[in-house]
Amino acid sequence: MIVRANFFASVRATLFGGTLSQEHVTNIEGILDCALEQNVPVQQIAYILATTYHETAHTMRPLKEYGLGKNYDYGKMLDMGKGPGRRVAYTQPPQLYYGRGYVQLTWLTNYLGAGKRLGIDLAGNPDEALKPDVAAKILVHGMVQGWFTGRKLSSYFNPLTANPVEARRIVNGTDKAALIAGYHAKFLFALTC
Predict the structure, then answer these.
(1) In this structure, are residues 129 and 155 in contact, taking their beta carbons and an 8 Å threshold?
(2) Cβ–Cβ < 8 Å for 102, 169
(3) CATH entry 3.30.20.10 includes domain 63-130
């Protein structure tokens, strides 16, 4: 059982420099509630929170990707041509599908997939992914079910193993893996104290 008063006191001191805004608390509560509704184990919840902490630059707020994806294919107009090496054109301008949320959901196919799974028209209205409740569902379901890279939390946190460094592969290769593992330890302590 998570004692939320203890949890917030701990993260306030260890991760947020002694201060939590109401927005921090509300958004963290939303993530916790979503994870607990899905019966996500505490080790995995700690990693979800650590990932969110990192991906949102410690704001715990759903964000738009910096630069709106302008240096990435999903943020550019795609080649409409046919033939080998040509990209498939989307029905709507692809720049609509830059990263949004607690983790950066990108590409039309990912907006379509997440929207279908959640029963939300994310492709038609990608900014829905910026709403905290929707962002929490994308985050939790995506990490639990392996939406982002095909890798799931249960591969890294289960009764036989806890590997917060390798768990970074769920979202983004090994970028900042050790740093996020350190956040995981602090969130795990807070969740269990």
Answers:
(1) no
(2) no
(3) yes
Distance, CA of 126 to CA of 97 (rounded, Å): 7
What predicted TM-score, i.e. pTM, was given to this entire model? 0.88
101 three-class SS: strand
CATH 3.30.20.10 domain range(s) in the chain: 63-130
Tell me the three-class secondary structure of 37-97, residue by residue: HCCCCHHHHHHHHHHHHHHCCCCCCCEECHHHHCCCHHHCCCCCCCCCCCCCCCCCCHHHH
What is the Cα–Cα distance from 4 to 1, expressed in whole angstroms?
A: 9
Q: Which one-letter amino acid corresponds to residue 63? A: L
Length of the chain: 193
**pLDDT per residue as tens digits for the range 9-39:** 999 999 999 999 999 999 999 999 999 999 9
CA–CA gap between residue 77 and residue 85 (Å, rounded)? 15
What confidence tens digit (pLDDT) does each residue in 109-168 have?
A: 889 899 999 999 998 899 999 999 999 999 999 999 999 999 999 999 999 999 999 999
Distance linking the first and last C-alpha atoms of the chain: 10
